[in-house]
């Protein structure tokens, strides 16, 4: 299995377009220890020919340009992207779909909840179902992608997209926030870009995997509050923090995980800079902080 980390930052990228926190300023100024990152999306393949895009970030066009494996290879119009798989309806997961509107045929996969959110918005009519068929998946049922990778989607604690808040429970229905178990070539990979709580079900699913790509939005739960940029905690945003007793590093410390990688990292998170104490702590505890464009072979 080949995995391209097309983007590794949270919504807004790094630096976020309107952010002047100390962290973001380092990226604005071109500090080599704090390189810019685009919003999280990955691409996977087993056969090396057909690729599945997992989440379509607003930065998708620049991500395709930066990764030659996703360039057109034949005829007048072509793309090796054969499926797009969504783990939720968040803006930074779906906006890039509009980049794929120029006549390319692919299958759009997601939970029934996520696909209903897409189809309720008329702007996504630019991807008509006749050309971009919708393929809803059932939670905890296995299916195979055009790229040859086998997938099982599972529910994780989360919340509804920001634009749907106020229409019911913040947690939403089952399928609002999902993780993915990807298998192929004898390897098992877990992709969980958003998670509000690491409960026993999440721990059991992760245990024994060869590679974990996990939500690293904030270093601490009150990060945005302490910086004065937002009244929202990580929990209110639907994200578990990296540090703290209930954070990802502590909650996953005892599990058998081949390789641990944080993704979906917010512009304020100090681990984005290579020379911070927080980066040193994360690495000492076995976590890799990636940059855009890394190719992973689990």
From TrEMBL:
Pathway: Cofactor biosynthesis; pyrroloquinoline quinone biosynthesis. Keywords: PQQ biosynthesis, Transport. Residues 51-265 form the Metallo-beta-lactamase domain. GO terms for biological process: pyrroloquinoline quinone biosynthetic process. Coiled coil: none annotated. May be involved in the transport of PQQ or its precursor to the periplasm. Belongs to the PqqB family. This is Coenzyme PQQ synthesis protein B. It comes from Zavarzinia aquatilis. It comes from the Bacteria.
């Amino acid at each position: 299995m080949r995995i391209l980390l097309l983007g590794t930052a949270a919504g807004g990228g790094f630096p976020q377009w309107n952010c002047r926190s100390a962290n973001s300023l380092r990226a604005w100024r071109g500090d080599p220890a704090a390189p810019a990152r685009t919003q999280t999306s990955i691409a996977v393949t087993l056969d090396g020919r057909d690729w599945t895009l997992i989440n379509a970030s607003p930065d998708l066009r620049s991500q395709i340009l930066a990764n030659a494996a996703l360039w057109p290879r034949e005829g007048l119009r072509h793309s090796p992207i054969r499926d797009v798989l969504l783990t939720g309806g968040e803006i930074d997961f779906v906006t890039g779909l509009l980049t794929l509107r120029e006549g390319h045929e692919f299958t759009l996969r997601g939970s029934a909840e996520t696909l209903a959110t897409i189809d309720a918005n008329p702007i996504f009519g630019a991807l008509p179902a006749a050309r971009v068929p919708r393929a809803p998946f059932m939670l905890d049922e296995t299916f195979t992608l055009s790229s040859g990778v086998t997938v099982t989607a599972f529910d994780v604690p989360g919340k509804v997209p920001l634009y749907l808040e106020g229409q019911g429970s913040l947690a939403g229905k089952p399928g609002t926030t999902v993780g993915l178990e990807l298998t192929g070539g004898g390897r098992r990979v877990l992709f969980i870009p958003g998670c509000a709580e690491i409960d026993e079900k999440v721990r059991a699913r992760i245990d024994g995997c060869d590679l974990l790509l996990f939500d690293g939005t904030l270093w601490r739960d009150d990060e945005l509050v302490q910086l004065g940029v937002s009244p929202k905690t990580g929990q209110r945003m639907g994200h578990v923090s990296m540090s703290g007793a209930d954070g990802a590093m502590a909650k996953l410390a005892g599990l058998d995980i081949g390789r641990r990688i944080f993704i979906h990292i917010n512009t304020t998170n100090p681990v984005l800079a290579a020379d911070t104490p927080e980066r040193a702590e994360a690495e000492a505890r076995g976590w890799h902080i990636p940059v855009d464009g890394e190719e992973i072979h689990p």
